[in-house]
TrEMBL record:
Record InterPro entries: Homeodomain-like_sf (IPR009057), HTH-type_TetR-like_transc_reg (IPR050109), HTH_TetR (IPR001647), Tet_transcr_reg_TetR-rel_C_sf (IPR036271), Tscrpt_reg_YcdC_C (IPR013573)
SUPFAM superfamilies: Homeodomain-like (SSF46689), Tetracyclin repressor-like, C-terminal domain (SSF48498)
UniProt name for this protein: TetR family transcriptional regulator C-terminal domain-containing protein
Pfam family, one: TetR_N
DNA-binding region, residues: 37-56
Source species, domain of life: Bacteria
Domain HTH tetR-type residues, every copy: 14-74
PANTHER family named among the record's database cross-references: HTH-TYPE TRANSCRIPTIONAL REGULATOR RUTR (PTHR30055:SF196)
PROSITE patterns: HTH_TETR_2
Keywords: DNA-binding
Length: 205
């Protein structure tokens, strides 16, 4: 009996956790960490407050779990950089992936940016450990290509920082970008063309 019931419980638990994290994204995006409440998260998730507290012991715990999930999603494209691929194509593919994430996940991007601007109090351990290791690996690949003369020499970590900042701008300052460009223009399409040209000129040997 136990073996047949565990998979069903696991699916239910995962579904409820996903609902809670989605509800938390709604609440934190609208009200910030301080302004959001467990009651708001529960309403957004469509669950009772006791049900939310069954999975997470506090609002801070939900916030940290959400940010950890977002960080993993944010880092996935970097981990897909292929050391055996064409260097310029790999960098441009990574840039495009980050830009599309700004289009597809603007609330998530703004929530993560807000956490960083606050000094990353909920992500200090992750930022100092796993993030640095992933960036170090990517920077090592980029530096190897530069040493081989396959990319123009620049500081690989600052190259990564520039991709983060330039692509995430379209999510974090979406209202400003659209206001400046005016109606009928696509910020992501136009931004993609501009950034493609920028990095091609910067990195072509």
């Amino acid at each position: 009996m136990t073996e047949t019931s565990e998979p069903q419980m696991s699916r239910i638990q995962q579904k409820n956790r996903d609902l809670i994290l989605h509800g938390a994204l709604e609440a934190f995006s609208a009200n910030g960490l301080r302004g959001a409440t467990i009651d708001q998260i529960a309403r957004s998730a469509g669950l009772s407050k006791p049900n939310v507290l069954y999975y997470f012991g506090s609002k801070d715990e939900i916030h940290k779990a959400l940010l950890t999930t977002l960080l993993e999603m944010w880092l996935a494209p970097m981990q897909q950089i292929d050391p055996d691929g064409d260097p310029l194509s790999e960098v441009l593919r990574y840039m495009r992936a980050k830009l599309m994430m700004s289009q597809d996940y603007p609330r998530e991007s703004r929530l993560f940016a807000h956490e960083i601007l606050q000094g990353a109090p909920h992500l200090t351990e992750i930022l100092g450990g796993g993030l640095r290791e992933i960036v170090d690996r990517a920077a090592g690949v980029l530096q190897g290509w530069m040493d081989q003369g396959r990319l123009a020499p620049v500081d690989p970590r600052h190259l990564i920082f520039s991709i983060w900042s330039m692509t995430q701008h379209y999510a974090d300052f979406e209202a400003q970008v659209r206001a400046v460009l005016g109606p009928g223009r696509d910020p992501i399409d136009e931004g993609g063309v501009f950034l493609d040209n920028l990095y091609r000129k910067l990195l072509t040997p």
